[in-house]
Amino acid sequence: xxxxxxxxxxxxxxxxxxxxxxxxxxxxxxxxxxxxxxxxxxxxxxxxxxxxxxxxxxxxxxxxxxxxxxxxxxxxxxxxxxxxxxxxxxxxxxxxxxxxxxxxxxxxxxxxxxxxxxxxxxxxxxxxxxxxxxxxxxxxxxxxxxxxxxxxxxxxxxxxxxxxxxxxxxxxxxxxxxxxxxxxxxxxxxxxxxxxxxxxxxxxxxxxxxxxxxxxxxxxxxxxxxxxxxxxxxxxxxxxxxxxxxxxxxxxxxxxxxxxxxxxxxxxxxxxxxxxxxxxxxxxxxxxxxxxxxxxxxxxxxxxxxxxxxxxxxxxxxxxxxxxxxxxxxxxxxxxxxxxxxxxxxxxxxxxxxxxxxxxxxxxxxxxxxxxxxxxxxxxxxxxxxxxxxxxxxxxxxxxxxxxxxxxxxxxxxxxxxxxxxxxxxxxxxxxxxxxxxxxxxxxxxxxxxxxxxxxxxxxxxxxxxxxxxxxxxxxxxxxxxxxxxxxxxxxxxxxxxxxxxxxxxxxxxxxxxxxxx
Length: 518
What we know:
- By secondary structure, this protein is an alpha+beta fold.
- The protein has 21 helices and 15 strands.
- It has helices at 3-6, 21-27, 35-45, 82-91, 121-139, 154-157, 183-189, 192-205, 222-235, 245-254, 300-314, 327-332, 349-355, 358-362, 369-377, 389-415, 426-434, 437-459, 462-469, 472-483, 490-517; strands spanning 8-13, 50-58, 61-74, 99-105, 115-116, 143-150, 166-169, 173-177, 211-215, 259-266, 269-279, 282-290, 319-322, 336-338, 340-346.
- Helix 3 packs antiparallel against helix 10 (245-254), helix 8 (192-205) packs across helix 11 (300-314) and helix 16 crosses helix 20 (472-483).
């Protein structure tokens, strides 16, 4: 190791309490989800996560601090709609389907934050990467991911792409600038349709007296509030971590200066609560709970939003950061969307190549049109009408998955030794087939191809993608000759040639279409 590198040393901690608050403040910018908040997360979520902190020192001075946690993560967490139903059905037979042990840099309950002195970032990246590799081996994690980091961290994290990391968009963060002197002034800033709709909903809430209180802890309302939290959590189509009751109890004491519990009562009954962190002009909305016996009737979501905005105006809050998910109402309430990224890499180089396709498949805008529209506004979304070079490779990958699945199915059928199938031998045939490894391997390739093909269709027109995918009609006969020792006659070769010519014309026509769009 060179003299320049030898001045750096690494320490690993498994609890933030092993690190002093003074060191934390030296390396981290002032953030609401800071030392005490992370200590609360540690104390209450230790059953679900294993926590680590990697600190790098230059001589005796801390220059980098990165929180990590280890968890079993389901890759289909961000999926919604019919595709989610498919993965859920598969999990009834294979509970661990799409679940991997992952080492994640960031916070389990919020956006990612890094403590890095930029002056030393170029020097510490190789050392940092080696340390993370060792931690992955220790925890038997197959994937390392940096989760939910904003653009401000790109200058540091983009360097990890040289180590084989893939960069993909995550769920965006949303913020509302409080530039108003009153809620009516805020209403006036909305579009006519959004203003009319919000006023209509808020009129409904005025039909009954609903009282709001703000406290630093839940106190006697802990049990009732947690029941409301679980109601709201179970209503969501996408679910991340389940926050234990102890978190809401401890965060009030550990972060008493920043914790704000907004409580809404109807005739003395708690019908809604919202846990936020607030300090120095910023409010972060963390977790909400609604009583769904009255939530829709009185539009409680919008009532809570109105009251929090009013509180922000009265208390000098300039930025209201909303929680993740439920983006549709936030878009209409004029929240701004900000891109966040995940950087990930598989430990196995071969699997890492396949992992590179997941950013195309699992990115949130594939399943949420609101996110897609917002990312398009920031000009980070791909143009759907343009079939890029990388997309051609994605189509080709889909074709190969389908082709090899078909070859495996053929070999599985032949390996049973039963060729003339009828009623008399159908059950023995199915019995032998059910225990065939080639059959199940082919099935898994078909499942993977389903996800890849859905991604292709999200990025390209069907009239273009499907004819190009017809290259499988060329590959299957060729590979059947190689692997299955089949034979083709002259007319079959002629048909294959015509298909290849047709694919060529489709690709050429698409190139001309792209040129016209530029």
